[in-house]
Every structure is written in structure tokens, then in C-alpha cells.
Sequence to fold (80 residues):
Amino acid sequence: MLKKDVERTFEGIVNLDILKERFSKDLIKATNDIESLKKRIGNKNFIEKAPQAIVDECQSKLKQANLHFASIKRKLEMLE
Fold:
């Protein structure tokens, strides 16, 4: 979908500048979540001492955070 199409679809319903700002903030939060999870998973002590279920949960959260990041980025790109 092109920016013109997005603008026409939401014209008068949604303030696109506010939506862009929200997506930008969400992108920053997703980036911070990814970095935090990568540090945790990259910590040798954590991997060695944490129960496997916790390690698996962190890895799952990292995958979800990456998917969320990609989704937000695509939405933001459609608005630019």
C-alpha cells in the first residue's frame, strides 16, 4: 500500500502524525526489549544457572520481540 492510499483510507479518521509518533515510540521500546533480552541470553551465568524453562521463555520472548519490531517497522514505513 502506498502512502497516498494510506492517507486516503484514514483521511479525517486518524491523525497520521500522531500515529507515526506512536509507532516510533513503540519501535524504540521494541528495540530496548530486544537489546535487554539479547544481553540476558548472552550472559553465560544466566544460561548456566537459570532453569531451562526460563531460558526457553527468554528465547521465545526474543523471537516475539523481533517479530513485533518488524511489524512496527513495516507499519511505520507505510506511513512515511
Q: What stands out?
A: The helical segments are 3-10, 16-42, 44-49, 52-79.
